[in-house]
Amino acid sequence: MFPEYDVIIVGAGHAGSEAAAAAANLGSRTLLITMNLQTIAQMSCNPAMGGIAKGQIIREIDALGGYSGIVSDRSMIQFRMLNRSKGPAMWSPRSQNDRMLFSVTWRQLLENTPNLDFYQDTVRSILLEGGKVCGVITGLGNEIRGKAVVLTSGTFLNGIIHIGEKQLGGGRIAEKSSTGITEQLVSLGFESARLKTGTPPRIDGRSIDYSKTEEQKGDTEITGFSFLPLEKPAKQLSCWITYTNPEVHEILKTGFDRSPMFTGRIGGTGPRYCPSVEDKINRFSHRERHQLFIEPEGWNTVEVYLNGFSTSLPEEVQYRAIRKIQGLENARFFRPGYAIEYDYFPPTQLKSTLETKPVENLFFAGQINGTTGYEEAACQGIMAGINAHCKTSAKAPFVLKRDEAYIGVLIDDLISKGTDEPYRMFTSRAEFRTLLRQDNADLRLTPKSNAIGLASQQRMESLKRKQQEVETIRKILDNFYITVEESNSYINSIHDSPLPYRQKASQLLLRPAIDLFSMSREVPRLGEALAGFSREALQQSEIQVKYEIYIEKEKHLAERISQLEGLNIPENFNYDRIPALSAEALQKFKKIRPSSLGQASRISGVNPCDVQILMVYMGR
Question: Does 212 lie in the same domain as 153?
Protein backbone atom coordinates (compact mmCIF):
# COMPACT_ATOMS: atom_id res chain seq x y z
CA MET A 1 0.00 0.00 0.00
CA PHE A 2 2.78 2.42 0.94
CA PRO A 3 6.10 2.88 -0.89
CA GLU A 4 9.33 3.23 1.06
CA TYR A 5 10.13 6.85 1.80
CA ASP A 6 13.44 8.61 2.32
CA VAL A 7 12.06 10.82 5.10
CA ILE A 8 8.88 10.46 7.17
CA ILE A 9 7.70 13.53 9.09
CA VAL A 10 5.40 12.88 12.06
CA GLY A 11 3.26 15.92 12.86
CA ALA A 12 2.29 18.87 10.66
CA GLY A 13 2.72 21.81 12.98
CA HIS A 14 5.24 24.56 12.28
CA ALA A 15 8.23 22.24 12.78
CA GLY A 16 6.78 19.37 10.77
CA SER A 17 5.66 21.58 7.89
CA GLU A 18 9.11 23.18 7.52
CA ALA A 19 10.81 19.78 7.84
CA ALA A 20 8.60 18.28 5.14
CA ALA A 21 9.14 21.21 2.77
CA ALA A 22 12.93 21.15 3.25
CA ALA A 23 13.37 17.40 2.78
CA ALA A 24 11.07 17.29 -0.25
CA ASN A 25 12.58 20.34 -1.94
CA LEU A 26 16.03 18.82 -1.52
CA GLY A 27 14.85 15.76 -3.46
CA SER A 28 13.96 13.24 -0.75
CA ARG A 29 10.79 11.24 -1.23
CA THR A 30 8.92 12.55 1.81
CA LEU A 31 5.75 11.60 3.69
CA LEU A 32 3.98 13.98 6.09
CA ILE A 33 1.76 12.18 8.60
CA THR A 34 -0.69 14.24 10.66
CA MET A 35 -3.78 13.58 12.77
CA ASN A 36 -5.77 16.20 10.86
CA LEU A 37 -5.00 17.55 7.40
CA GLN A 38 -7.31 20.52 8.10
CA THR A 39 -4.99 21.89 10.80
CA ILE A 40 -1.63 21.96 9.00
CA ALA A 41 0.63 24.59 10.61
CA GLN A 42 -2.25 25.78 12.76
CA MET A 43 -1.60 28.75 15.03
CA SER A 44 -2.59 27.02 18.25
CA CYS A 45 -1.96 30.07 20.39
CA ASN A 46 -1.63 33.72 19.33
CA PRO A 47 -2.29 34.69 15.68
CA ALA A 48 1.11 36.33 15.17
CA MET A 49 4.57 35.60 13.79
CA GLY A 50 7.91 37.13 14.68
CA GLY A 51 8.73 39.54 17.48
CA ILE A 52 11.90 40.06 19.50
CA ALA A 53 14.54 37.64 18.07
CA LYS A 54 11.70 35.52 16.65
CA GLY A 55 11.43 37.86 13.67
CA GLN A 56 15.13 37.31 12.98
CA ILE A 57 14.50 33.55 12.99
CA ILE A 58 11.68 33.82 10.44
CA ARG A 59 13.92 35.86 8.13
CA GLU A 60 16.66 33.23 8.54
CA ILE A 61 14.21 30.44 7.66
CA ASP A 62 13.20 32.43 4.59
CA ALA A 63 16.82 33.02 3.61
CA LEU A 64 17.37 29.25 3.77
CA GLY A 65 14.45 28.67 1.43
CA GLY A 66 11.78 27.79 4.01
CA TYR A 67 8.12 28.74 3.80
CA SER A 68 7.32 30.49 7.11
CA GLY A 69 8.21 33.97 5.85
CA ILE A 70 6.22 33.56 2.65
CA VAL A 71 3.15 32.28 4.51
CA SER A 72 3.41 35.06 7.10
CA ASP A 73 3.53 37.74 4.41
CA ARG A 74 0.61 36.28 2.45
CA SER A 75 -1.63 35.96 5.54
CA MET A 76 -0.59 39.22 7.21
CA ILE A 77 -3.24 41.57 8.63
CA GLN A 78 -0.81 43.91 10.43
CA PHE A 79 2.95 44.49 10.42
CA ARG A 80 5.25 46.22 12.89
CA MET A 81 9.02 46.50 13.12
CA LEU A 82 9.72 46.34 16.85
CA ASN A 83 12.57 48.17 18.62
CA ARG A 84 12.97 50.88 15.97
CA SER A 85 14.20 53.25 18.71
CA LYS A 86 17.19 50.93 19.28
CA GLY A 87 20.04 49.89 17.01
CA PRO A 88 19.47 47.68 13.92
CA ALA A 89 20.70 44.60 15.79
CA MET A 90 17.55 44.85 17.89
CA TRP A 91 15.04 45.53 15.11
CA SER A 92 12.59 42.65 14.97
CA PRO A 93 9.73 42.22 12.46
CA ARG A 94 6.36 41.03 13.77
CA SER A 95 3.07 40.38 12.03
CA GLN A 96 -0.51 39.74 13.06
CA ASN A 97 -1.94 37.04 10.84
CA ASP A 98 -5.24 35.68 9.67
CA ARG A 99 -5.28 32.36 11.53
CA MET A 100 -7.33 30.43 8.97
CA LEU A 101 -5.57 31.94 5.94
CA PHE A 102 -2.19 31.10 7.49
CA SER A 103 -3.03 27.39 7.69
CA VAL A 104 -4.67 27.31 4.25
CA THR A 105 -1.64 29.02 2.67
CA TRP A 106 0.74 26.53 4.28
CA ARG A 107 -1.29 23.60 2.96
CA GLN A 108 -1.38 25.08 -0.55
CA LEU A 109 2.40 25.52 -0.58
CA LEU A 110 3.00 22.00 0.71
CA GLU A 111 0.58 20.46 -1.79
CA ASN A 112 2.51 22.19 -4.58
CA THR A 113 5.84 20.87 -3.30
CA PRO A 114 7.25 18.01 -5.41
CA ASN A 115 8.25 14.72 -3.75
CA LEU A 116 5.82 15.26 -0.84
CA ASP A 117 2.98 12.88 0.05
CA PHE A 118 0.39 13.22 2.84
CA TYR A 119 -1.37 10.75 5.12
CA GLN A 120 -3.90 11.41 7.87
CA ASP A 121 -3.37 9.13 10.86
CA THR A 122 -1.64 8.99 14.22
CA VAL A 123 1.73 7.33 14.80
CA ARG A 124 1.87 4.97 17.77
CA SER A 125 5.47 3.74 17.47
CA ILE A 126 8.63 3.82 15.41
CA LEU A 127 10.15 0.82 13.61
CA LEU A 128 13.73 -0.17 14.44
CA GLU A 129 16.31 -2.45 12.86
CA GLY A 130 19.80 -2.77 14.30
CA GLY A 131 19.54 0.37 16.39
CA LYS A 132 18.37 2.44 13.42
CA VAL A 133 14.92 3.77 12.71
CA CYS A 134 13.38 2.25 9.59
CA GLY A 135 9.81 3.52 9.64
CA VAL A 136 6.66 3.99 11.73
CA ILE A 137 3.51 2.13 12.72
CA THR A 138 0.36 4.22 12.51
CA GLY A 139 -2.70 4.20 14.71
CA LEU A 140 -4.55 2.16 12.09
CA GLY A 141 -1.80 -0.45 12.21
CA ASN A 142 -0.14 0.48 8.91
CA GLU A 143 3.59 -0.14 8.68
CA ILE A 144 5.29 2.57 6.63
CA ARG A 145 8.98 2.17 5.87
CA GLY A 146 11.35 5.13 5.78
CA LYS A 147 15.11 5.70 5.95
CA ALA A 148 14.72 8.57 8.44
CA VAL A 149 11.94 9.77 10.75
CA VAL A 150 11.47 13.29 12.09
CA LEU A 151 9.25 13.52 15.19
CA THR A 152 7.51 16.90 15.59
CA SER A 153 4.82 16.03 18.10
CA GLY A 154 4.24 19.48 19.59
CA THR A 155 2.12 19.32 22.74
CA PHE A 156 0.42 16.04 21.78
CA LEU A 157 2.57 13.43 23.55
CA ASN A 158 0.38 12.32 26.48
CA GLY A 159 -1.14 15.80 26.48
CA ILE A 160 -3.54 16.75 29.28
CA ILE A 161 -5.69 19.90 29.12
CA HIS A 162 -6.47 21.69 32.40
CA ILE A 163 -9.37 24.10 32.98
CA GLY A 164 -9.76 24.62 36.71
CA GLU A 165 -10.47 21.24 38.26
CA LYS A 166 -11.39 19.71 34.91
CA GLN A 167 -8.89 17.52 33.07
CA LEU A 168 -9.18 16.40 29.47
CA GLY A 169 -6.87 14.26 27.40
CA GLY A 170 -5.74 16.22 24.35
CA GLY A 171 -2.91 17.87 22.51
CA ARG A 172 -5.03 20.91 21.67
CA ILE A 173 -8.61 21.76 22.62
CA ALA A 174 -11.02 19.28 20.95
CA GLU A 175 -8.09 17.23 19.56
CA LYS A 176 -6.93 13.97 21.11
CA SER A 177 -3.46 13.40 22.48
CA SER A 178 -0.87 10.94 21.14
CA THR A 179 0.12 7.91 23.19
CA GLY A 180 2.68 5.15 22.84
CA ILE A 181 5.68 7.04 21.47
CA THR A 182 6.95 8.33 24.84
CA GLU A 183 6.71 4.91 26.41
CA GLN A 184 8.60 3.29 23.53
CA LEU A 185 11.36 5.89 23.51
CA VAL A 186 11.82 5.65 27.28
CA SER A 187 12.19 1.87 26.91
CA LEU A 188 14.97 2.60 24.39
CA GLY A 189 16.88 4.65 26.95
CA PHE A 190 15.58 8.17 26.31
CA GLU A 191 14.97 10.54 29.21
CA SER A 192 11.60 12.29 29.18
CA ALA A 193 9.96 14.97 31.32
CA ARG A 194 6.87 17.18 31.41
CA LEU A 195 6.34 20.81 30.43
CA LYS A 196 3.26 22.97 30.33
CA THR A 197 2.00 25.88 28.32
CA GLY A 198 -1.25 27.80 28.20
CA THR A 199 -3.51 29.93 26.07
CA PRO A 200 -6.02 32.74 26.78
CA PRO A 201 -9.77 32.78 26.24
CA ARG A 202 -11.05 33.68 22.77
CA ILE A 203 -13.65 36.45 22.81
CA ASP A 204 -16.44 37.61 20.50
CA GLY A 205 -15.18 40.94 19.14
CA ARG A 206 -18.75 42.20 18.73
CA SER A 207 -19.07 42.28 22.53
CA ILE A 208 -16.03 44.58 23.04
CA ASP A 209 -16.28 48.34 23.50
CA TYR A 210 -13.14 49.42 21.62
CA SER A 211 -13.71 53.08 22.51
CA LYS A 212 -12.49 52.25 26.03
CA THR A 213 -9.23 50.74 24.77
CA GLU A 214 -6.05 52.12 23.15
CA GLU A 215 -5.62 51.56 19.42
CA GLN A 216 -2.35 50.07 18.16
CA LYS A 217 -1.92 50.50 14.42
CA GLY A 218 0.57 48.80 12.14
CA ASP A 219 3.59 50.45 10.51
CA THR A 220 3.07 52.68 7.48
CA GLU A 221 5.94 50.89 5.73
CA ILE A 222 5.48 47.11 5.56
CA THR A 223 8.86 45.40 5.29
CA GLY A 224 7.55 41.87 5.75
CA PHE A 225 9.58 38.71 6.31
CA SER A 226 10.39 37.18 2.95
CA PHE A 227 13.32 38.36 0.85
CA LEU A 228 11.25 37.46 -2.21
CA PRO A 229 9.25 40.31 -3.80
CA LEU A 230 5.82 39.43 -2.38
CA GLU A 231 2.73 41.61 -2.46
CA LYS A 232 1.98 43.25 0.88
CA PRO A 233 -1.56 43.97 2.22
CA ALA A 234 -3.13 47.25 1.03
CA LYS A 235 -4.71 47.82 4.43
CA GLN A 236 -4.14 46.62 7.98
CA LEU A 237 -6.27 45.77 11.02
CA SER A 238 -5.55 47.45 14.35
CA CYS A 239 -4.84 45.74 17.64
CA TRP A 240 -6.08 47.25 20.91
CA ILE A 241 -4.58 47.64 24.37
CA THR A 242 -6.34 47.40 27.73
CA TYR A 243 -5.26 46.52 31.28
CA THR A 244 -6.16 44.36 34.24
CA ASN A 245 -6.93 46.15 37.54
CA PRO A 246 -7.05 45.36 41.29
CA GLU A 247 -10.66 44.17 41.06
CA VAL A 248 -9.73 41.73 38.28
CA HIS A 249 -6.84 40.45 40.41
CA GLU A 250 -9.08 39.86 43.43
CA ILE A 251 -11.58 37.88 41.35
CA LEU A 252 -8.81 35.75 39.87
CA LYS A 253 -7.49 35.01 43.37
CA THR A 254 -10.84 33.46 44.31
CA GLY A 255 -10.02 30.65 41.89
CA PHE A 256 -6.50 29.96 43.11
CA ASP A 257 -7.68 27.06 45.32
CA ARG A 258 -9.01 25.38 42.17
CA SER A 259 -6.10 26.34 39.89
CA PRO A 260 -4.16 23.28 38.66
CA MET A 261 -1.02 25.43 38.85
CA PHE A 262 -1.34 26.00 42.59
CA THR A 263 -2.94 22.73 43.65
CA GLY A 264 -0.18 20.57 42.16
CA ARG A 265 -2.23 18.91 39.43
CA ILE A 266 0.20 20.35 36.86
CA GLY A 267 3.66 18.95 37.40
CA GLY A 268 5.29 20.38 34.26
CA THR A 269 7.20 23.66 34.23
CA GLY A 270 5.60 26.54 32.37
CA PRO A 271 7.22 29.25 30.21
CA ARG A 272 9.10 31.79 32.33
CA TYR A 273 8.63 34.61 29.81
CA CYS A 274 4.98 34.01 29.00
CA PRO A 275 3.40 33.33 32.40
CA SER A 276 -0.29 32.80 33.00
CA VAL A 277 -2.26 35.75 34.34
CA GLU A 278 -2.67 34.01 37.72
CA ASP A 279 1.08 33.46 37.86
CA LYS A 280 1.68 37.15 37.08
CA ILE A 281 -0.56 38.47 39.85
CA ASN A 282 0.90 35.92 42.28
CA ARG A 283 4.57 36.66 41.43
CA PHE A 284 4.13 40.40 40.94
CA SER A 285 1.63 41.17 43.68
CA HIS A 286 2.88 44.78 43.89
CA ARG A 287 1.66 45.49 40.35
CA GLU A 288 -1.82 47.02 40.18
CA ARG A 289 -2.29 46.24 36.50
CA HIS A 290 -0.94 44.19 33.62
CA GLN A 291 -1.11 45.08 29.94
CA LEU A 292 -3.37 43.06 27.64
CA PHE A 293 -3.49 43.08 23.83
CA ILE A 294 -6.76 42.50 21.99
CA GLU A 295 -5.66 40.87 18.73
CA PRO A 296 -7.97 40.14 15.77
CA GLU A 297 -7.89 36.55 14.50
CA GLY A 298 -8.43 37.40 10.83
CA TRP A 299 -10.07 39.47 8.12
CA ASN A 300 -13.39 37.61 8.11
CA THR A 301 -14.02 36.68 11.74
CA VAL A 302 -15.10 38.51 14.88
CA GLU A 303 -13.04 36.19 17.09
CA VAL A 304 -10.25 37.95 19.02
CA TYR A 305 -7.30 36.74 21.07
CA LEU A 306 -6.68 38.28 24.52
CA ASN A 307 -2.87 38.29 24.58
CA GLY A 308 -1.50 38.44 28.14
CA PHE A 309 -4.41 36.57 29.75
CA SER A 310 -3.26 32.94 29.47
CA THR A 311 -4.98 31.00 32.23
CA SER A 312 -6.14 27.60 33.45
CA LEU A 313 -8.52 28.93 36.12
CA PRO A 314 -12.14 27.70 36.24
CA GLU A 315 -14.30 29.06 33.43
CA GLU A 316 -16.61 31.07 35.66
CA VAL A 317 -13.62 32.80 37.31
CA GLN A 318 -12.16 33.67 33.90
CA TYR A 319 -15.53 35.02 32.80
CA ARG A 320 -16.15 37.17 35.89
CA ALA A 321 -12.61 38.58 35.86
CA ILE A 322 -12.61 39.48 32.16
CA ARG A 323 -15.90 41.35 32.53
CA LYS A 324 -14.18 43.73 34.98
CA ILE A 325 -11.58 44.76 32.37
CA GLN A 326 -12.14 48.11 30.70
CA GLY A 327 -13.80 47.60 27.32
CA LEU A 328 -14.68 43.97 28.09
CA GLU A 329 -17.59 44.59 30.46
CA ASN A 330 -19.98 42.75 28.15
CA ALA A 331 -17.50 40.22 26.75
CA ARG A 332 -18.77 36.90 25.45
CA PHE A 333 -16.55 33.82 25.29
CA PHE A 334 -15.92 31.75 22.20
CA ARG A 335 -13.91 29.39 24.41
CA PRO A 336 -12.12 29.58 27.75
CA GLY A 337 -8.39 29.68 28.31
CA TYR A 338 -6.66 26.45 29.29
CA ALA A 339 -3.28 24.98 30.19
CA ILE A 340 -1.81 21.91 28.56
CA GLU A 341 0.80 19.57 30.00
CA TYR A 342 2.81 17.31 27.68
CA ASP A 343 5.91 15.14 27.34
CA TYR A 344 9.21 16.38 25.97
CA PHE A 345 12.70 14.93 25.70
CA PRO A 346 15.59 16.98 27.16
CA PRO A 347 17.53 18.08 24.07
CA THR A 348 20.98 17.19 25.40
CA GLN A 349 20.11 13.79 23.89
CA LEU A 350 20.51 15.30 20.41
CA LYS A 351 23.40 15.85 18.04
CA SER A 352 23.94 19.25 16.40
CA THR A 353 21.96 17.96 13.40
CA LEU A 354 18.95 17.27 15.69
CA GLU A 355 19.45 13.54 15.17
CA THR A 356 19.01 11.62 18.42
CA LYS A 357 22.06 10.05 20.05
CA PRO A 358 20.37 6.79 21.18
CA VAL A 359 18.68 5.97 17.83
CA GLU A 360 20.29 6.58 14.45
CA ASN A 361 18.25 8.31 11.71
CA LEU A 362 15.65 9.53 14.23
CA PHE A 363 15.33 13.33 14.45
CA PHE A 364 13.42 15.55 16.90
CA ALA A 365 12.19 19.08 16.14
CA GLY A 366 9.97 21.60 17.91
CA GLN A 367 8.30 21.39 21.30
CA ILE A 368 9.40 17.79 21.73
CA ASN A 369 12.83 19.38 22.39
CA GLY A 370 11.54 21.71 25.10
CA THR A 371 11.09 24.90 23.08
CA THR A 372 8.07 27.19 22.93
CA GLY A 373 6.93 29.34 20.03
CA TYR A 374 6.07 28.86 16.37
CA GLU A 375 9.35 30.39 15.22
CA GLU A 376 11.58 28.25 17.43
CA ALA A 377 9.73 25.15 16.21
CA ALA A 378 9.86 26.13 12.54
CA CYS A 379 13.62 26.72 12.52
CA GLN A 380 14.27 23.34 14.13
CA GLY A 381 11.98 21.80 11.55
CA ILE A 382 13.86 23.15 8.56
CA MET A 383 17.20 22.06 10.06
CA ALA A 384 15.90 18.58 10.90
CA GLY A 385 14.42 18.22 7.42
CA ILE A 386 17.68 19.29 5.79
CA ASN A 387 19.76 16.93 7.92
CA ALA A 388 17.39 13.99 7.54
CA HIS A 389 17.83 14.40 3.78
CA CYS A 390 21.62 14.75 4.13
CA LYS A 391 21.86 11.66 6.35
CA THR A 392 19.83 9.44 4.00
CA SER A 393 21.68 10.80 0.97
CA ALA A 394 25.17 10.25 2.46
CA LYS A 395 25.87 13.98 2.37
CA ALA A 396 27.69 16.12 4.91
CA PRO A 397 25.53 17.43 7.77
CA PHE A 398 24.28 21.01 7.62
CA VAL A 399 25.03 22.86 10.89
CA LEU A 400 24.90 26.57 11.60
CA LYS A 401 27.28 28.06 14.16
CA ARG A 402 26.44 30.62 16.85
CA ASP A 403 28.06 33.44 14.87
CA GLU A 404 26.16 32.48 11.68
CA ALA A 405 22.51 32.49 12.75
CA TYR A 406 20.06 32.74 15.61
CA ILE A 407 19.11 29.23 14.51
CA GLY A 408 22.66 28.17 15.37
CA VAL A 409 22.39 29.82 18.78
CA LEU A 410 19.09 28.08 19.52
CA ILE A 411 20.25 24.59 18.56
CA ASP A 412 23.60 24.98 20.35
CA ASP A 413 21.81 26.16 23.48
CA LEU A 414 19.46 23.18 23.39
CA ILE A 415 22.03 20.46 22.82
CA SER A 416 24.75 21.99 25.04
CA LYS A 417 22.75 23.38 27.92
CA GLY A 418 19.49 21.52 27.73
CA THR A 419 16.38 23.11 29.19
CA ASP A 420 14.06 22.30 32.07
CA GLU A 421 11.55 24.99 31.11
CA PRO A 422 10.08 25.99 27.73
CA TYR A 423 12.95 27.61 25.80
CA ARG A 424 12.28 30.92 24.07
CA MET A 425 14.71 32.84 21.88
CA PHE A 426 15.81 36.38 22.85
CA THR A 427 18.36 38.67 21.26
CA SER A 428 20.29 38.55 24.56
CA ARG A 429 20.99 34.84 24.03
CA ALA A 430 23.20 35.66 21.01
CA GLU A 431 26.76 36.83 21.63
CA PHE A 432 27.00 38.09 18.06
CA ARG A 433 23.69 39.85 17.56
CA THR A 434 25.28 42.76 15.67
CA LEU A 435 26.24 40.17 13.06
CA LEU A 436 22.92 38.33 13.23
CA ARG A 437 20.55 41.11 12.21
CA GLN A 438 17.22 40.53 10.50
CA ASP A 439 18.21 42.67 7.51
CA ASN A 440 21.24 40.57 6.51
CA ALA A 441 19.86 37.04 6.98
CA ASP A 442 19.97 36.51 3.21
CA LEU A 443 23.60 37.61 3.02
CA ARG A 444 24.50 35.17 5.79
CA LEU A 445 22.49 32.11 4.85
CA THR A 446 21.19 32.05 1.28
CA PRO A 447 24.60 31.13 -0.27
CA LYS A 448 24.99 28.27 2.24
CA SER A 449 21.50 26.95 1.50
CA ASN A 450 21.88 27.34 -2.26
CA ALA A 451 25.09 25.32 -2.10
CA ILE A 452 23.18 22.31 -0.73
CA GLY A 453 20.35 22.76 -3.24
CA LEU A 454 17.59 24.26 -1.08
CA ALA A 455 17.56 28.04 -1.59
CA SER A 456 16.48 28.65 -5.18
CA GLN A 457 18.50 30.25 -7.96
CA GLN A 458 15.92 33.05 -7.95
CA ARG A 459 16.95 33.85 -4.38
CA MET A 460 20.63 33.80 -5.30
CA GLU A 461 20.10 36.14 -8.26
CA SER A 462 18.13 38.52 -6.04
CA LEU A 463 20.90 38.38 -3.45
CA LYS A 464 23.60 39.09 -6.03
CA ARG A 465 21.69 42.17 -7.22
CA LYS A 466 21.42 43.35 -3.64
CA GLN A 467 25.13 42.77 -3.02
CA GLN A 468 26.07 44.66 -6.17
CA GLU A 469 23.82 47.56 -5.16
CA VAL A 470 25.31 47.68 -1.67
CA GLU A 471 28.85 47.62 -3.05
CA THR A 472 28.06 50.47 -5.43
CA ILE A 473 26.35 52.54 -2.73
CA ARG A 474 29.29 52.12 -0.37
CA LYS A 475 31.68 53.31 -3.05
CA ILE A 476 29.49 56.37 -3.61
CA LEU A 477 29.40 57.14 0.13
CA ASP A 478 33.18 56.75 0.42
CA ASN A 479 33.85 59.10 -2.48
CA PHE A 480 31.08 61.67 -2.01
CA TYR A 481 32.12 64.81 -0.12
CA ILE A 482 29.47 66.94 1.59
CA THR A 483 30.41 70.59 1.96
CA VAL A 484 29.89 72.67 5.09
CA GLU A 485 27.32 74.80 3.25
CA GLU A 486 25.31 71.76 2.09
CA SER A 487 25.18 70.26 5.54
CA ASN A 488 24.35 73.34 7.63
CA SER A 489 20.56 73.34 7.44
CA TYR A 490 20.39 69.57 7.91
CA ILE A 491 22.81 69.57 10.86
CA ASN A 492 20.95 72.43 12.53
CA SER A 493 17.58 70.72 12.11
CA ILE A 494 18.76 67.70 14.12
CA HIS A 495 20.67 69.84 16.66
CA ASP A 496 23.98 68.17 15.93
CA SER A 497 27.45 69.74 15.91
CA PRO A 498 28.23 71.68 12.70
CA LEU A 499 30.80 70.39 10.24
CA PRO A 500 34.23 72.03 10.67
CA TYR A 501 35.15 71.10 7.09
CA ARG A 502 33.82 69.05 4.22
CA GLN A 503 33.42 65.35 4.98
CA LYS A 504 32.77 62.11 3.17
CA ALA A 505 29.17 60.97 3.37
CA SER A 506 30.36 57.72 4.98
CA GLN A 507 32.11 59.70 7.74
CA LEU A 508 29.06 61.84 8.40
CA LEU A 509 26.93 58.69 8.69
CA LEU A 510 28.94 57.63 11.73
CA ARG A 511 27.13 60.28 13.75
CA PRO A 512 24.33 58.61 15.75
CA ALA A 513 21.76 61.32 14.93
CA ILE A 514 22.27 61.08 11.15
CA ASP A 515 20.64 58.54 8.86
CA LEU A 516 21.12 58.01 5.16
CA PHE A 517 17.53 58.63 4.07
CA SER A 518 17.13 62.04 5.70
CA MET A 519 20.66 63.05 4.66
CA SER A 520 19.80 62.17 1.04
CA ARG A 521 16.70 64.36 1.22
CA GLU A 522 18.52 67.34 2.75
CA VAL A 523 21.58 67.13 0.51
CA PRO A 524 20.13 67.10 -3.05
CA ARG A 525 23.42 66.17 -4.75
CA LEU A 526 23.65 63.03 -2.61
CA GLY A 527 19.99 62.24 -3.24
CA GLU A 528 20.63 62.39 -6.98
CA ALA A 529 23.67 60.13 -6.66
CA LEU A 530 21.66 57.51 -4.75
CA ALA A 531 18.51 57.72 -6.88
CA GLY A 532 17.34 54.42 -8.29
CA PHE A 533 18.74 52.15 -5.58
CA SER A 534 16.34 49.97 -3.59
CA ARG A 535 15.44 50.98 -0.05
CA GLU A 536 16.67 47.60 1.17
CA ALA A 537 20.14 48.11 -0.36
CA LEU A 538 20.36 51.68 0.97
CA GLN A 539 19.50 50.53 4.49
CA GLN A 540 21.97 47.65 4.29
CA SER A 541 24.73 50.03 3.18
CA GLU A 542 24.00 52.46 6.00
CA ILE A 543 24.08 49.72 8.63
CA GLN A 544 27.37 48.34 7.31
CA VAL A 545 28.96 51.79 7.46
CA LYS A 546 27.67 52.63 10.93
CA TYR A 547 28.42 49.24 12.54
CA GLU A 548 31.74 48.32 10.95
CA ILE A 549 33.72 48.93 14.14
CA TYR A 550 31.24 46.98 16.28
CA ILE A 551 31.52 43.96 14.00
CA GLU A 552 35.26 43.89 14.65
CA LYS A 553 34.63 44.11 18.39
CA GLU A 554 32.32 41.12 18.21
CA LYS A 555 35.03 39.07 16.55
CA HIS A 556 37.33 39.83 19.47
CA LEU A 557 34.53 38.92 21.89
CA ALA A 558 34.21 35.53 20.18
CA GLU A 559 37.91 34.90 20.72
CA ARG A 560 37.63 35.85 24.39
CA ILE A 561 34.64 33.58 25.00
CA SER A 562 36.54 30.61 23.55
CA GLN A 563 39.15 31.07 26.30
CA LEU A 564 36.62 30.84 29.14
CA GLU A 565 36.96 27.10 29.66
CA GLY A 566 40.20 27.49 31.61
CA LEU A 567 38.87 30.16 33.96
CA ASN A 568 37.69 28.32 37.08
CA ILE A 569 35.07 29.59 39.51
CA PRO A 570 35.62 28.82 43.23
CA GLU A 571 33.06 26.34 44.53
CA ASN A 572 31.98 28.69 47.32
CA PHE A 573 31.77 31.82 45.14
CA ASN A 574 29.16 34.25 46.52
CA TYR A 575 26.93 35.29 43.61
CA ASP A 576 24.71 37.41 45.85
CA ARG A 577 27.39 40.10 45.96
CA ILE A 578 26.93 40.80 42.23
CA PRO A 579 23.85 43.06 42.02
CA ALA A 580 24.17 43.59 38.25
CA LEU A 581 23.38 39.95 37.40
CA SER A 582 19.96 39.28 35.92
CA ALA A 583 17.50 37.55 38.26
CA GLU A 584 17.52 34.42 36.11
CA ALA A 585 21.33 34.23 35.97
CA LEU A 586 21.60 34.63 39.76
CA GLN A 587 19.08 31.84 40.27
CA LYS A 588 20.79 29.47 37.82
CA PHE A 589 24.36 30.18 39.06
CA LYS A 590 23.37 29.46 42.67
CA LYS A 591 21.57 26.26 41.69
CA ILE A 592 24.07 24.78 39.23
CA ARG A 593 27.33 26.17 40.71
CA PRO A 594 29.29 26.15 37.43
CA SER A 595 32.94 25.16 37.74
CA SER A 596 34.20 27.52 35.02
CA LEU A 597 33.17 30.61 33.11
CA GLY A 598 32.82 28.41 30.05
CA GLN A 599 30.26 26.23 31.78
CA ALA A 600 28.52 29.32 33.17
CA SER A 601 28.19 30.73 29.66
CA ARG A 602 26.30 27.63 28.48
CA ILE A 603 23.68 27.54 31.23
CA SER A 604 20.21 28.05 29.77
CA GLY A 605 18.95 31.57 30.37
CA VAL A 606 22.37 33.08 31.10
CA ASN A 607 23.27 35.73 28.53
CA PRO A 608 26.72 37.04 27.51
CA CYS A 609 26.28 40.18 29.63
CA ASP A 610 25.93 38.03 32.77
CA VAL A 611 29.14 36.18 31.90
CA GLN A 612 31.02 39.44 31.34
CA ILE A 613 29.77 40.80 34.67
CA LEU A 614 30.88 37.61 36.43
CA MET A 615 34.24 37.86 34.67
CA VAL A 616 34.76 41.41 35.99
CA TYR A 617 33.93 40.40 39.57
CA MET A 618 36.44 37.54 39.34
CA GLY A 619 39.15 39.99 38.34
CA ARG A 620 39.34 38.80 34.73
Answer: no
